[in-house]
Design brief:
Shape: globular
Strand content: 25-35%
Strand order of the largest sheet: 3-4-5-6-7-8-9
Structural class: alpha+beta
CATH architecture of the largest domain: 2-Layer Sandwich
Number of helices: 7
Radius of gyration: 17 Å
Largest sheet: 7 strands, mixed
Number of domains: 2
Amino acid sequence: MERLAILNPQVCELAREAGQKIMHFYEGGASVTWKRDASPLTSADSASHDFLMEALRSLTPGVPVISEESDEVINGAVAADITFWLVDPLDGTKEFIKGTNEFTVNLALVEAGQPVIGVVHAPALSLTYYGVRNLGSWRQAGDDPPNPISSRRAGSSQLAVVASKDHAGPLVSAMLSRLMNPKLRSMGSSLKFCLVAEGKADLYLRDLPTMEWDTAAAQCVVEAAGGGVYSLDGKPLGYGKRGLRNPAIMTVGDVQYDWPALISS
């Protein structure tokens, strides 16, 4: 536990440094290419990736670093006893290209299949969320002192639901149609998870595909704030799965609420 508490500030600083590199391209213009899966890749993604791969390997020698932009393709599962980093050097590339400010750097340390340190840094917003397993979660705006955050109990009258701007699937639409007067907020990148972690939303439902680097850092923030991230059968989302692919997930602030019944009804 003490080891994680000591390591966490260093990880936050690396996320901010990566964010500075991203902002250089955000303010000055970035070239865009397209990956084989038709998702965009910018020069900002590459600059952040290169920096973080080297920095994390230097920070924790011998600990593998898996990034969305790594050349290696992970086909098998990661061994359950392996400690490794999961990195999304620029989450929300579409938001970056559109100029919405809603993009993040995501860094997570995974041990025994669960994220134990998670940092979500939004450089254009000068905003950082971070969590350490069993120690808590915090929100820091700019150079202000960090403030502890916690998720909230779900109310019965009106639920606040956060959804993806670009990837809200049919299950989300069906659930929203069953709710009475839901409060809906749309947002890009892993900031959606952070709204749940800080008690500004009750539920983030994602039924379209994600990869483990999309969710690990934010999951740690949510869980350390008192919430949870689950597959739709109610099992906590784990890491090191075959192909590093996630199933449909629900991110909740109130872990006692009967979310599966609401979603599947």
